[in-house]
Amino acid sequence: MTDATMGNPPGNTDGDGELTTADGKPLAVALHRSHRQARRHAFLLVAPLLAFLVITFLIPIATMMTRSVQNYEVADYLPNTTAAIETWDAKGLPDEAVFAAMGEDVRIGAENRTIGRVAARINREIPGTRSQMMGTARNIAEMGPPWREAFIAQHEGWGNEEFWRLVKRETRTLTPIYYLLSFDFEYNSYGEIVERAPEYQVYRLMFIRTAWMSILITALCIVLGYPVAHILANLPLRYSNLLMILVLLPFWTSLLVRTSAWIVLLQQQGVVNDTLVWLGIIADDGRIRLIYNQIGTIVAMTHILLPFMILPLYSVMKTVPPSYMRAARSMGAGPLRSFISIYLPLTVPGLAAGVLLVFILAIGYYITPALVGGDTGIFISNLIAGNMQGSTAELKLALALSTILLVAVLIIYWLFNKLVGVDRLKFG
Amino acid sequence: MIQTTKHCALALTVSAFALTAGTAMAETDSLTIVSWGGSYSDSQNRAYDQPFEEKTGIKIVHEDKAAQGLAGIRSQVEAGNVTWDLVDMLQSEAQRACDEGLVMLIPHDEWLADAPDGTPASEDFIAGTLGDCFVPQILYATMFAYNNDAFPGDKPQTIADIWDTQKFPGTRSLQNIPQKNLEWALMADGVDPDEVYTVLATKEGQDRAFAKLDELRDNIIWWSEGAQPPQMLADEEAVIATAYNGRIFNAQVNENQPFTIMWDGQMFEVDGWVVPVDNDADVEAIKEYLNFATDSQRLADQAKYIAYAPARTSSVPLVTTHADTGVDMKPHMPTSPENFQNAVQFDPKFWADYGDALEERFSAWLAQ
């Protein structure tokens, strides 16, 4: 639009037929100016929203990503050791100078009560280091040269080469360790990247579980939502309005209430089990565990996310003229054939929008899995939350996991765009 | 019309000023206290917060965020915006907060009240419970409890019975953390309670504890909040549950639930106050509160409302009856001699060292 007006400056068009406004200015210039003004106004109108997004969304996400690779504890709280250990060749124990520097750092750290912060960092890699460092810090005033002997007399951990290699490694202020941990890898004591021991592996499993459970929930939403949306779109208005309220009513009900309702229904002494026992399908002592596992999460989340599938589908189905299907039938196509060739392709924009909504909401869901997921039905978001609170919280690991989840969602969105085309989606 | 709008605007402005002025005054005259909520906060409120407000006019503002206490103080101190004045914490977390310089050092005898007979505070609190930055209030137990209706014949008597699903069938409800569960698993596997932490410090011991938990895995549902286990026992979702003794007492006495506490293998620990550094309250007010809230009479009073034992020796003889029902509280204390026979002290130091690794392993085990 801009190019068109710019590319045809007045006078170049068709000789004397140049158009002007009432006050004699060339029309193209006036048009260009008014467009520019409209754009400026539009920008000013969205500026508050833009500022809001930058402040509350982009900046926190950028901070989150930066902090997930920061590793300042050793460098900040053991500055002398960091300087002294640089020349150590990581073979055998470091020399007296490094121990003396550590003595100075521990003394200052004990005075400022900051030694616990670096002890917590190192304890994460070698359990027991916390009491080694804290115990020594308590006695640092009585210690003196030769420092190496003094330290090892305090705690044998100071004579462990692995400890010193770790300190040397962690003097760098940027680290990929939290991303390695997120994929169940870690450094061994020689600084090589290795897979974690099987009993500590959890995050890959949880990412995969979150993905397949989200896919399953999305699929269930399609299976349940598609017919409902079809009926809604084709019933006479007075019935469809009533039905629509039945779809929207749970949508307006608090998430916690709906989740708690599922607990009442599904627990072992709950309505579903009671009914099954009453019907004689299961024995009273053989009640089925329907909640606090994956079944509970899948059932409750499918119910909660169903409106996000039904509403876009409904809005698209509403626009499909019933005559199309009748035309297909009249030309000899069976019910299945006319559905697949005519109806389904016409509803794809709504279906795709529903899939995208449900899947992306599901993959980051927190509260429902936390309440009904028990041990095996929880999502990666629950482990992220676990790393944000509690006494051994590892905030940076939570940040790394969140970043990975964010990137995964963006990749999914990109793939989806390639396959379906986001501009074709109809969200309702 | 315009006149009315003007009046409204004026009124709004005035009330806005009044509100801000009100808050500003309240800030200097109030203490923000973070605790556990529920019946525990109630007991604190009735035993010393309300009397303190009456005595000094300083308002106590409660926040029920103690479960995220350490993480919360860490982020507040890091952000340089500390809004919590006192935080109720477990001893193990208090030690870590102290080591990391997140909470103030507390000179015990200078800040805290002497016992009625003049014994200084440092000698009056149960040995080993006062920390450099920590003043305990209560001693509580986590132990197994069961619903009497589930076991008409024999009742579970020992930790080993909990693992005996043949003799005592039914679902167990355990907390979704490694602390205490691993200790009990080792005890059930025949480890002497005195040796539990030595064994748990080794790789073999940890494998052994997880293997023992594996045996029970299919019979466990997990709880995360202290209010859940009594609820699960009452709903018969579980027949045996681990719980805090105060919560079970509450269900027994206030709600007449047919629950029994199995005191064998109870694990006890203390809970108390820390003061975050750089908080925005007047240190004199905090000192006054700590002095008042942890004196012998106030700690004994707390036992009128909840079945946790006072952390001061001099408070023990002052413990009387339950404020609402008149039940004698002494036999319900975790420290009463018949309950204390096979008690195990929870080791905060062990968990400070091995907590990171064991929690990671536990969450991996839980997700399998």
Describe this structure in words.
- The complex is a heterodimer of chains A (428) and B (368).
- Chain A is mainly alpha-helical.
- Chain A folds into 3 domains: 2-67, no CATH class; 73-172, no CATH class; 203-424, MetI-like (MetI-like fold, Orthogonal Bundle).
- Chain A contains 20 helices and 2 strands.
- Chain A has a two-stranded antiparallel sheet.
- Chain A starts with a helix and ends in a 9-residue tail after the last helix.
- In chain B, helix 4 packs across helix 15 and helix 8 (181-188) crosses helix 10.
- Chain B has 2 domains: 2-138 and 274-325, Periplasmic binding protein-like II (D-Maltodextrin-Binding Protein, domain 2), CATH 3.40.190.10; 140-269 and 340-367, D-Maltodextrin-Binding Protein, domain 2, CATH 3.40.190.
- Chain B is globular, with a radius of gyration of 23 Å.
- In chain B, strands 1, 2, 3, 4, 5, 6, 7, 8, 9 and 10 form a 10-stranded mixed beta sheet that branches.
- The N and C termini of chain B lie far apart (69 Å).
- Chain B has 368 residues and is an alpha/beta fold.
- Chain B contains 15 helices and 10 strands.
- The A-B interface holds A 112-117, 119-120, 123-124, 127-131, 134, 199-202, 205-206, 209, 267-269, 285, 292, 374-376, 378, 383, 386, 388-395 and B 67-68, 70-71, 74-75, 90, 92-93, 96, 98-101, 105, 169, 171, 176, 201, 210, 221-222, 235-237, 349, 352-357, 359-361, 363-368.
